[in-house]
Amino acid sequence: MLHRNIPLDTEQPVTIRNLDALLAPKTVALIGASPRRGSIGHTVMTKLLNGGFKGDVHLVNPKYDAIEDHPCHASVADLPTTPDLGVIVTPPDSVPGLIGELGAKGARAAVVITAGLTRENGLRQAMLDAAKPHLLRVLGPNCIGLQAPCVGLDASFAHIAAAPGDLALLSQSGAIVTAMLDWAAPRGIGFSVVASLGDMADVDVGDMLDHLAADRATHAVIMYLEQVTDARKFMSAARSCARVKPVIVVKAGRSAAAAKAAASHTGALAGADAVYETAFRRAGVLRVETLESLFAAAETLARVPPLRSDRLGIVTNGGGAGVLAVDALAQRGIRLAALSDVSMAALDAALPATWSHANPVDVIGDADADRYEAAVTTLLDDPKVDAVLVMNCPTALAPSDVIAERVVALAAARAAMPGQRPRKPILTNWLGEATAAVARKRFEAAGLPSYDTPAEAARGFSYLANHHKAQAALRRVPPSLPPDFSADYAAAKAAMAPALAEGRETLTEPEAKAVLRAYGVPTAETETASTPQEAGEIAGRMLEAGVQAVAVKILSRDITHKSDVGGVRLNLHTAQEAAAAAEGILAAARKARPDAQIDGLAVQPMIRREHAHELILGVTEDATFGPVMLFGAGGVSVEVVADKALALPPLDRTLARDMIEQTRVGKLMAGYRDRPAADIDAVALTLVRLARLAADFPQIIEMDVNPLLADASGVIALDARIVARPAPQTERGANPRFALRPYPAQWDRPETLPDGSTVRVRPVLPQDAALYEAFFDRLTDQDRRFRFMSAINQLSQSQIARFTQVDYARAMAFVAIDPEDGSLMGVSRLAADPDGERAEYAVIARSDLKGKGLGRALMTRLLDYAAAEGIGEIWGYVDIRNEAMQALCAKLGFRHRTDPDDREHVIVSVRPTAEGPDKAPTSADAPQPPDKVTPA
């Protein structure tokens, strides 16, 4: 569900409404102002009054009529005007009442600096309860406050006021805020927002990211996090923000002690910190390891434009320094640019014959400013180079400061040239101390990032490169699933039913394999036996049928790892050997685990694949992010080897291959020496199938497929284990514990058009990208103009990726598919604001299908979906010449009004209901659409 369906009085808030009052207030009230120097009340008051805030500041304290010549009011109710923002620095037991007073006065936000409002003493919840009726947003409690330098607001007790800039800083630690401000001040780094989040009782990191994603004053976001409290909101907000600007984080708590105990190999391998790493990667957020790295990232992000790709060119006057930079880049997986032939010729003409003739471009130790300029200019002009690192080692032959001045002048000239957007980044590394200090100051003044060592320069560039890679990953288009990709939901449910009915959490191996088979995972044939004699009989039948050997295993709901108790015997060639092995298995299990319930024995053929890889695939439950997928090297030594990769479901084939490529065994699967490559696509599809299984069945808590054999002929699961618990009934594919909302399969339904024909209308899938080009080609110029507000000739791959890779938690796109040829017939889209109150729509049908009722079917599906999601209002911009869309909207009860700023379009809106669109006009005081944007 969208966030608005979560009650406000729960631990986590649900909207970004009124955050404008928090971050850009016009009037502020300080409650707890004090004349006592050194107190928090006096410190915050001084900073509010003297920080350059252009709005009104009112002081509240019943003990004083005035403080330092400023009027002081006895209560919030006595304030002469309504404050947008209240700042509270009073004792904890007074806070809930003051929040209520602020809300009653009409305030829309509050910063609660006060500590001591906890769950245990009830004050935290009392504060939220007081805020709820007024939708008053609360930052804190237990924080050092808030700074919004762009409006001159300093509502904090930090020792330094941030300078205005375009970096936003979010931190769950006040100490980190003060450390960052202390670091930034001498470097001239400024901030758009500095928010100490404190206990995040209300406003949390997800809310802030949602707001900052649309904040034009913010170029990049840096964060210090200790925990994420609402995974789905965080993932949606982080992905939204990271798509448009860099988001970088340092996360505390890497220790293995944070990993939870688990009953499966998967659970044991998926430590909590590793899951955070996975979540950040999926959201496009860059993670750094230390505060020092966060500072370095801030330096780079504040000064350098985004990369077009990640190919770096280096100019240096010291070969050794260049080698150090290359080594540091290689450790971070960064590639050097391969210089073009044109560049090589230009460098040959400009440089001495002894230059390096390669990248790094060593201009030789006696290089002067002219030589540097020629080399740097050549690399900036090279289309194969995306950024340039300029390095200098001090010599007595050429003054380093003069060369620095030339680099600064060159960068300024490039920035001023027409057609230089986006300009190529220039990074600098001047080695030494006294000589380099002057150059570094010039670089800082010019806005060029400067690093003390080659390793630091490499690290700085890696942030840009990794951000570029993260953006590219968000835009990738996955391949389509094969036509035979299917799942038998009913069969899997039936296989799971006995265990759930009996109160067993652990499915038997045959039950678990039946679940896997229902979802298309090949499994080894397994039969169960109650006694050793029966095990021998089953083995005999298998051997007579042509099986070369069998395996016998213990079946017990209480024994997690069979091999640990001697519960597995392999390579049994006769019925007698199988029976004897079964006797030994039972004896060993009863000795090792006398308390365990023995459910029987499993007998299966030995699967012999000489070149097969043993893999583990699984699902486990993380306390913060819910279900997590695992892939890695399998077998009995899986936890010792610990060669693994994690991912948040749902998965597509591209994401599954990413998991495989992150591991050592994944590289081995590509083939080496005389060992042929395994069918990696079959492994990737198995991961996709398991992710869909987890989406369909919230009952599944943990799952191991270990080992899964993979070779050139495909995959087969030899063993499987599933832990399941009763869970509330949900729509298929709608596991509520997923941090990323799964594909809403329940909205995949046929629609009958007026002529009696039927089309399939379903939510969009990433692999639908393959259908868009042909669809776009069958649109008239006029229809393109109506839909995209311009006569564009083609869609870019990044546009198609954005259209087809939907965050179902806050957006929806329905596609109409021709049941005969699978072509795309039409699309309807809905993009909700982060609080789910309002959503913008867009609908387009293929031009050759006009008049068939397809547009109405797509629009009706959107309205039904919006009503089910609780969205309050649907609105859109319609070209004034698009009479057909205006007529359709009128039939569906939309209200029409003109846009006073745009006579070429009308604004339409409607309130969807469960019974259908509300035909009553929207009230005059309803919230109006934001500034016009291109429809989603």
Mind explaining what this structure looks like?
- The protein has 936 residues and is an alpha/beta fold.
- The radius of gyration is 32 Å and the shape is globular.
- The strands form six sheets. Strands 30, 31, 32, 33, 34, 35, 36, 37 and 38 form a nine-stranded mixed sheet that branches.
- It is built from 29 helices and 38 strands.
- Helices cover 35% and strands 22% of the residues.
- Helix 17 packs antiparallel against helix 18 and helix 22 packs across helix 24.
- Among the domains are: 252 residues, NAD(P)-binding Rossmann-like Domain (Rossmann fold, 3-Layer(aba) Sandwich); 169 residues, Rossmann fold (3-Layer(aba) Sandwich), CATH 3.40.50.261; 174 residues, 3-Layer(aba) Sandwich (Aminopeptidase).
- It starts with 18 loop residues before the first helix and ends in an 18-residue tail after the last strand.
